[in-house]
Amino acid sequence: MIKIEKLHKSYPIGKDSLHVLKGLDLHIKEGEFVSIMGSSGSGKSTLLNIVGLLDVHDEGNYYLNGQLIENLDEKKAAILRNKFLGFVFQSFNLITYKTAVENVALPLYYQGMARKERQEKALKYLEKVGLKDRANHLPSELSGGEKQRVAVARALATNPKVVLADEPTGALDTATSDSVMELLKDINREGMTVFVITHEEDIAEQTDRIVRLKDGVIISDEKVNKKVNA
Amino acid sequence: MFDLDRWREIFQRLSKNKLGTSLSGFTVSFAILLFTLLFGVGNGLKHTFEDQFAGDANNSVYIRTGRTTKPYKGLQSGRRIQLRNEDSKFMNENFEDEIQFFSPNIQRSMQAIYKGEQNRYSVRGVYPDYQPLESAEVVDGRFLTYLDIERRSKVVAIGRLVEKDLFGQLSALGKNINLDGLSYKVVGVFKDAGGDSDERYIYAPFSTLQGIYKPNDEVDYIGLTFNPNLSVDQALSFTNLLTKQLKEKFNIDPRDQAALRVQNYAEGTKNVEQFMNVLNFIILFIGIGTMIAGVICISNIMVYLVKERTKELGIRKALGATPRSIVGMIMMESIFITALAGYIGLLVGVFTLEAIGPGLEKYFILNPSVETYVVVGATIILIIAGTIAGYIPAKRAARIKPIVALNDE
Known about the structure:
The structure holds two protein chains of two kinds. By secondary structure, chain A is an alpha/beta fold. Chain A has helices at about 45-50, 75-85, 100-110, 115-130, 145-155, 175-190, 200-205; strands spanning about 1-15, 15-30, 35, 60-65, 65-70, 85-90, 160-165, 195-200, 210-215, 215-225. Chain A has one domain: P-loop containing nucleotide triphosphate hydrolases (Rossmann fold), CATH 3.40.50. A six-stranded mixed beta sheet of chain A has the order 6-7-8-3-9-10, with helices on both faces. The radius of gyration of chain A is 18 Å and the shape is globular. Chain B folds into two domains: about 5-50 and about 270-405, no CATH class; about 60-260, no CATH class.
């Protein structure tokens, strides 16, 4: 699903440049539940941005769903993001003046779906994350956990190939963190590829595979021994 | 453009940011309001001028004669100069292109009697061309025709006030009135913007009066209008040439001012036009300045509003908004605010002019108003202004990388 070969990325800082990703190789197959672990500055967010087509890499190859990503202009990137990727952010990134259901329906709007259909689909996904009764609330009227659930529903709405979650529990307390992780596990169990970035060990341990990143290189890539709970 | 969904998005946006919307809207409304008021007041001044010069076609020329004051070519001074039919012919032949309407004229003061009522009026023997020359407007019946001239008919067209004086509330049409002992049939009643004195004239066919009162083919004076396509300068050179030729014809010293007078309204018109042009220029300058200030203001506000929304635009991009849809959204917002607010300003301006108009007459501002083409033009300018105001921030918003936009706090 996601295949990365010798990926490099640098950021210019004044006259120098900061080499953030130093030749990463990573292959994530369909249906995997992967977490990227690393302290801040390890390059994990940069990696997610490149995978999420929010940023471009300097060198190396990136295949998304078998398609080589190159010479990407903003328009193509926007269409690919809409079609293949769903985002969950640490700070939720809901649009403040839109209700929960409108937020979930927004990516469908950019797909050109009719209003009524959008609304129905958005409600369906809100129901899936257990927030159907909160559909017409504004984000400011929702708790942190609820906001993140709305964000997950929004990420799922277009039925993407991969859900990218950047510190999805970073702004949440332990109890709500667990419920959000349960939700991600649920959607993974239904076959969705989920790609989580975190610096919390106990979050990473709930995924199937942990990739550890340090100073722009992968230092370990291991499967987690699943506790028998399914 | 007619995507209902997009309009919904825009209305939702605008209603959530009432401060920003009303702020930018107010700026535009105010600019347009000022523009409209300025334009209206300018038009009011213009109307005052036009009114002062109303009553005659402003391309009219009158040719009158008197006695010579200078001896010339062996002829003594004090000689009477008399216009005759052949002079009409001479002028029409020599200046065919320059002359639009032409009428020789005989004017006499006569006693008019209808039943018990009587009064003295100036009676003019004219050609049908005299009607546009005087800017007379027929309200009842008809003016004189060439057939009347040919037949030397005893018919008259009378001013509105003559009818009022002699006939009271009754219609004069078809009645016979007595002018210095001869009976004439009233075929028409006219009004004249020139005022009361112009509405107390009686017009009869030129040939009729000439036949009765002029032993030879004498003409009292000649009125004509020059071709309106002539510029003021061309018109002045036309009358100069006409004067020169007529003076030659009558053997008048070229420096003799009294023997032959050619009175051209173009000269006055020229001064007024120059003044109006300056006035128009000033109004236009201030008006356009106001508009530009308005556009710059709204552009500034839009830049700020877009900056404030950077994060939201980042989210939209992450969810699949193409740069084009971002540009389209912001531009439509801008155009919508500008057009709507501008239109409100325009309406307020027009109504204000209506309301304060009558009170301004003592300041020489008559009927201040804006023409339809100004309203339409201003609306088009508004939409263009909105496009310009929205384009720069929209383009900038579309260029921001989603990752930068998302990290904006």
